[in-house]
Amino acid sequence: MLDQHKAVKELLPYIEHRQCARHICQNLQNRFTSAIYHTLFWRASKATTEHAFKVVIKKIETLNPDAHQYLMEKDPKTWSRAFFQTGNHICPEIRDKVNLLKKAQRHYQVLLSGLNQFEVRGATDAYEVDLERKTCSCRLWQLNGYGCAHSVASISFLNRDAEAYVDNMFDTTTFRKAYNYIIAPMNSSDKWPETNYTPPLPPINRRMPGKSATKRKKSTTENTGTYRVFKAGKKIRCSIYMEIGHNKATCP
């Protein structure tokens, strides 16, 4: 089935439909061989605002009304970035999890039992799903708030969007409200107001569990390379008589 088949819009009415811009451009070149149409088409396809799209499409109309009519018949909303939908009301991580559930739901058979009630059958088990109450007998939907494979299968059975059934706590608006309040600025400690309360003291030092460190921790500016100390050229001195030529161990 092709992307432009009528059944796509009938079976998937709630999703954004797009066409391949490269194929549209190829068909445009087959009809209108001038290279200027190729350049202007990609400008119109990559335009990010509706105003920029209209400026380019107006140039095409001035050059050749037939080329303009051909592109308009292809529905610019499906091939120009100026009309693509942006953003999503669901947090990105939850949206990715819902997309995984959309793939997993293909392995289940859905039977309509009543209004918004379904029996979802797998290879070895079956579950009850109630879309109105947002419940599933596997209890995963009630626990995570964004659904399970059984609930998504029931939602897809009705040609609805599974993201519309995600709990409001995963909405981007709710996320922004949670971080809407700012952390008030604060002066340095020497400017804090004095109180009659006992000032807080630092915690008592205690020995941490495990083996204590025996090596000195080097500073970040110190060279961490290893060194070898050689005795060549160093004079040996006795620590008893302070004479040069022997040490304490070989002192006569």
From TrEMBL:
Species this chain originates from: Lactuca saligna
Database matches in SMART domains: ZnF_PMZ (SM00575)
Residue span, SWIM-type domain: 127-159
Zinc found in the keyword field: yes
Taxonomy, superkingdom: Eukaryota
Region (Disordered) residue spans: 194-223
Entry keyword annotation includes Metal-binding: yes
GO molecular function, one term: zinc ion binding
UniProt keyword list: Metal-binding, Zinc, Zinc-finger
Protein name: SWIM-type domain-containing protein
